[in-house]
Amino acid sequence: LLAKLGNGAVAGVTGVSIIFPLDMVKTRLQNQKPINGKLPYRGGIDCFQQIVRNEGVRGLYRGLVPNLAGVTPEKAIKLAVNDIMRGVLADRAGTSIDRLPVMYGALAGATAGLCQVIATNPMEIVKIQMQVAATTQPVGVSGMSSAAATAAVGGEVTAMGIVRQLGIRGLYKGTAATLLRDVPFSLLFFPLQALFAQKIHYQLHANNDKPSTLSVLAGSTVAGIIAAGSVTPADVIKTRLQSSSQPTPAYNGVVDCATRIMKNEGPAAFFKGTVPRCLTMAPLFGIALMMYDMQQKILG
Questions:
Q1: Measured between alpha carbons, how far is 74 from 56 in angstroms, rounded to an integer?
Q2: pLDDT in tens, 163-190
Q3: 35 has which bridge partners?
Q4: Is 234:274 a contact under the CB 8 Å cutoff?
Q5: Residue 189: partners with Cβ closer than 8 Å, 6 or more residues away
Q6: 266 exposed, middle or buried (CB, 10 Å; 0-12, 13-18, 19+)?
Q7: CB 73 within 8 A of CB 43
Q8: Considering only CA atoms, which of 61, 78, 74, 83 is closest in space to residue 17?
Q9: Residue 257 and residue 146 in contact, taking contact as beta carbons nearer than 8 Å
Q10: CB distance 12 to 283 below 8 Å
Q11: Tens digits of per-residue pLDDT, 66-103?
């Protein structure tokens, strides 16, 4: 178990470090709201350019350190639990892990998604508040969230400052939305990843052996695109709930947030940031699963 957790942690840190600028763009696009009737960003490329122009290259990595601190247990739990559950379910089905039926693979993935939220939610809320801190309009401290208030009084927004202000309860704000995103994502991703990796391996090598590392990378990337695109509406709701820039009155849970987005912005708003999200999650999980697979093979 410890080896699986360690492998998952290393895989997660590697993936996040590579794709973080895309995640920054995704968060900014999902959280943007009209200013004088006009959205701040015209799209992913424009958002990227504005961040670099206004905040420098370092702005693309705002919130990276707390994200790495959080992704270590998050990816460790997610990958290890999925691996363990696949083994348990394979034994129950009387088959090998590589031949696990899709429904069992979905159950293993959903279980992993459920277990990871204990680490995911605090990491995500700190990351998001740091990522949107530079866009918060400091119109006054009263009624503003912790990160926004800190910015308004001239202080630097830091991860520890957000944690102190939010407290344990605040770090789990938006947990329902996180579950609504991560459980379906894992339910879709892991069985699709296993299926695509095996199919790609067969096309490349014409045998049904354990998928090669490159097959795992390719299969994980394709599965990541499908799963990430499918749960984008839940990710938009989660981002809005956990952001430091809340509307007036502030969102009151998943249903209220979803209702107000639909009423004020229309259904298209639920898919803001879909392209950068897919471009983020696909290589993130492709790299993470590839690293995890390589470590498993090396360490036996």
A1: 29
A2: 888 898 888 988 999 999 999 999 999 9
A3: 38
A4: no
A5: 109, 223, 224, 226, 227, 285
A6: exposed
A7: no
A8: 61
A9: no
A10: no
A11: 778 777 787 778 888 988 999 999 999 888 887 888 89
Buried b (16+ CB within 10 A) or exposed e, 248-261: eeebeebeebbebb
Burial 94-125 (b: 16+ CB within 10 A, else e): eeebeebeeebbbbbbbbbbebbbebbbbbbb
Give 137-155 pLDDT, tens digit per residue. 443 333 444 444 444 444 5
Helices (H) then strands (E): counts for the chain? 11, 0
The parts of the chain modelled with pLDDT lower than 50 are 137-154
Give the distance from CA 217 to its chain's centroid.
Answer: 18
> In which residue are the tokens 């609504």 written?
180
DSSP 40: S
From residue 47, give the alpha-carbon distance in Å to each of 31, 59, 106, 277: 12, 12, 35, 14
Cβ atoms of 231 and 278 closer than 8 Å: no
